[in-house]
Amino acid sequence: MSAHDQHTNDHHHDDGGHDHGTFKSYMTGFVLAVILTAIPFWLVMGKVFDKSSVTAMVILGFAAVQIVVHMVYFLHMNAKSEGGWTMLALIFTLVLVVITLSGSLWVMYHLNHNMMPAHDMRNMP
User: Any idea what DSSP says for residue 82?
Assistant: First the structure.
C-alpha cells in the first residue's frame, strides 16, 4: 500500500448511513427553535388570548412542533436510519410526551382546584 493509498483511506469514513447535519441544517433548526420559542413568549407576555386555557393549549402545540424540530434537525431522526429503530424511538418519545403533558396538566388542574380557599368560611375555626 502506497503512501497515497493510505492517505486516501484515512480520509474515507464509513459512517454506516448516519446522516450528519450540515451547517445549513443546524442553522435552519436553530432559527426554527428560536421562532418556536419567541412566539409562545410573545403570546404570554402580550396577553394575546383572554383565556389562559387557550394560551396553554397553543403553547403546548408549539412545544410539540419544537420537539419534532429538535428531533429532525439536531438528532437527525428519520424513518430510514438505523433500520427503523429511530421510528420506534420516536413513537416511544411521543408516548412519553403525551403521558407527561397530560399527567402534568391533570395534576396542576387538581392542585389548583383543591388548594383554593374554602367558599364557606363560617365553619372555619
Answer: G
